[in-house]
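Milestone 3.1: sequence recovery, worked example.
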């Protein structure tokens, strides 16, 4: 595997806490001693956060669409409304 891909894999495993404790400590030392690696970890962390945010946004849109579809059914809407009255 290319060095860049191995580094990305290592960063992802570190961020997802999928390393054993000894490997995690070694990686943390590498991050502390390598500003370039620290920057890459920071960027990858931001990417992971963005992907999670986009996934939540997508799920929210799907739920909103489902809600709109359900609420157009008058019988269903009346049942739901009666539950919360």
């Amino acid at each position: 595997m290319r060095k860049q891909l191995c580094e990305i894999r290592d960063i992802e495993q570190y961020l997802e806490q999928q390393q054993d404790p000894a490997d995690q400590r070694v990686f943390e030392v590498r991050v502390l001693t390598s500003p370039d690696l620290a920057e890459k970890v920071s960027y990858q962390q931001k990417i992971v956060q963005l992907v999670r945010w986009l996934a939540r946004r997508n799920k929210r849109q799907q739920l909103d669409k489902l809600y709109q579809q359900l609420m157009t059914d008058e019988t269903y809407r009346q049942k739901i409304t009666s539950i919360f009255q």
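Helices lie at 3-15, 21-33, 35-71, 74-83. The chain has a mean pLDDT of 89.
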